[in-house]
Amino acid sequence: MEKKWWKESVVYQIYPKSFNDSNGDGIGDIRGIIQKLDYLKELGVNVLWISPMLESPQDDNGYDISDYQKIYKDYGTMEDYEELLAEAHKRGIKILMDLVVNHTSDEHNWFIESRKSKDNPYRDYYIWKEPVNGKEPNNWGGVFGGSAWEYDAQTQMYYLHLFSKKQPDLNWENEKVRQEVYDMMTFWCEKGIDGFRMDVISMISKDQAFPDGEMNNSLYGDFGPYCVHGPRVHEFLQEMNREVLSRYDIMTVGETSGVTIEEAQKYAGEAGKELNMVFQFEHVDNGSGDYGKWTTEKYDFKEFKRIMIKWQEELQGKAWNSLFLGNHDQPRSVSRFGNDNPAYRETSAKMLATCLHMMQGTPYVYQGEELGMTNVYFDKLEDYRDIESINFFTELTESGLMTPEYMMKCLMLRSRDNARTPMQWDTSAQAGFTDGESWIKVNPNYKEINAAQQLKDPNSIFHYYQKLISLRKEKDIIVYGEFEPLYRDDEQIFAYTRKLDQEKLLTVCNFSERNAEMEIPEEFKGAECLITNLDRTVFEGKIVLKPYEAFVLYK
């Protein structure tokens, strides 16, 4: 297997609005990130993926860009960004930019021009359609609820927006649009950034027939079969690779919801014609109900394990995995896959980290995950800021599909705002995130869960992550070793081995709050324990795992 720096890296995702506020306006910013680079260096991560920091009206927290070459004023200036790059590089930390090119903001100059008239030179930069029988061109629903089409009175046509109506989709069929995107990417590569995380990149190619979608229990048709992994997506990405990506030593990861193993091998194949790796979402979509993620059902562990094993086994030697349990769009991983009850929070957070970081692929740590930060469980709608949560609350309760009480429970478990509460730095007011009033409420448990305390405690979750990350740097087997699952059908245990030449690793994790029995394979007799989250010293024969216990043996 070819060795690459991005395979050996550990990525830390920063959601800038909630990370660290340097000027007291209640919003995180670039100078705030610069202030915390030493903290990130101490943790050991060597790549930062920072959610979008470009000019934006903030309809979807920056995923609606109005100028691709300007920094959002509340985050700072281009000089601040250049300083961030320089200071990160000094510490051996690389920076990934969030590339949002499926859509722009409706306040982007291209769209302002595009909507002026049918013969405007920018008209074809977006997807405009005539009404059909006085209504939308088809029945597609948007990701954030409502129709995917918005009527524009000026030219009496509809434009497509797969997300918010303030996020019109770009028309990738137009060669000029593609060239604009490649020129903009080159601008950033020349500035010295180290790569791109590509937002919903699997949606850039649409079926040009724009047929109706299946209703599947919903108020609108499903655009998935016609917009996700569309007819020309691989052609477009290969062109992007030739024009930009292949000219720089950068890292690329695509957000590709709905991706199959076969598609992932095309996007992220070892031949390197498109991207380095993709995010698949099968494991985090596990446990969805009739209305997608809006459910109070818990995830199914056996299904989760089956999915994780499938991606490990089937991409092995063919394409590269990205490993994550949380991000800015997901609930907190310890609340979802572990147990955030104080009795088990630390143990289960360490267990989840062990399971993920010992697999083959590049691990991603979402800000606060290294502290075991939990869901916030807001119980009032007015505390939520996320457009998706607010829109779906309205849509599902007004249509009578859910009661407001049940929908509030769904939000408490699944809202994206769970991941977006401010980073918990210390016990001072606002968790040390800001001297002002935070843009979203701080999780009230910051006095128990914060970075300052964990940095002082050698047994903290922070130091456990630090150790996992340093092990990956020391041992090639953790990056490149072959993966093989054990106990495939066990209802509690996730265990697997890794092999590289004469070396072997065994990772064992108990995903439940009950004891679990297992037998240590004979070949690991006398093996060294690399890391354990409970102070186990005996690793031979039949053993009883405690709730959420995890360890890694090396021979």
List the helices and strands and how they pair.
Blueprint: E1 11-14, H1 30-35, H2 37-43, E2 47-50, E3 54-55, E4 67-71, H3 78-90, E5 94-99, H4 109-114, E6 128-129, E7 149-152, E8 157-160, H5 175-191, E9 195-198, H6 224-227, H7 233-243, E10 251-255, H8 261-267, E11 277-279, H9 282-285, H10 301-315, E12 320-323, H11 333-336, H12 345-357, E13 362-366, H13 387-398, H14 404-414, H15 451-456, H16 461-474, H17 476-480, E14 482-486, E15 493-500, E16 503-510, E17 516-519, E18 528-532, E19 542-545, E20 550-554
Parallel strand pairs: 1-2, 1-13, 2-5, 5-9, 9-10, 10-11, 11-12, 12-13
Antiparallel strand pairs: 3-4, 6-8, 7-8, 14-15, 15-16, 16-20, 17-19, 18-20
Helix pairs in contact: 12-16, 13-14
Domain Glycosyl hydrolase family 13 catalytic: 13-420
Family: Belongs to the glycosyl hydrolase 13 family.
InterPro entries: GH, GH13_cat_dom, Glyco_hydro_b, O16G_dom_2, SusG-like_C
